[in-house]
Amino acid sequence: MSRRTFIRRFHDATGTSPGEWLLGIRLEKACAMLENNALSIDQVAEQAGFGSPEALRHHFRQRFNTTPTKWRKAFNERFVMG
């Protein structure tokens, strides 16, 4: 299968490109780690598959309009209050 055909079929099946799909999976994993443990941002970035903590922060700002640290703090506040 050619690259072009793969990308087209992937988009038809998922509604997104392979790169965007992978980014979404990495962000989901990072969110879960931020919500469920006390790993550092550097450790979360590494374990979620981002090349650097800066890349994690960049994608968090783009997708969620916040930082990983603020995400963790907001989740902890909701958990404590809820």
Structure description:
It is built from 5 helices and no strands. It is mostly helical and 82 residues long. The chain has a single domain (24-81), classed as Arc Repressor Mutant, subunit A (Orthogonal Bundle), CATH 1.10.10. Helix 2 (18-36) packs antiparallel against helix 3 and helix 2 (18-36) packs across helix 5.
Topology:
Elements lengths: L2 H12 L3 H19 L4 H8 L4 H12 L3 H14 L1
Helix pairs in contact: 2-3, 2-5, 3-4
Q: Uncertain regions: pLDDT < 50 for 5+ in a row?
A: none
Secondary-structure-derived class: mainly alpha
Helix content: over 70%
Q: Compute the separation of the termini in Å.
A: 50 Å
Q: What is the global morphology?
A: elongated
| Largest β sheet strand count, sense and barrel closure | none
Mean pLDDT: 93
Order of helices and strands: HHHHH
CA gyration radius, whole angstroms: 15 Å
CATH architecture classification: Orthogonal Bundle
**CATH homologous superfamily identity:** Homeodomain-like
Strand content range: under 5%
Total number of distinct structural domains: 1
Short description:
The protein is mainly α.
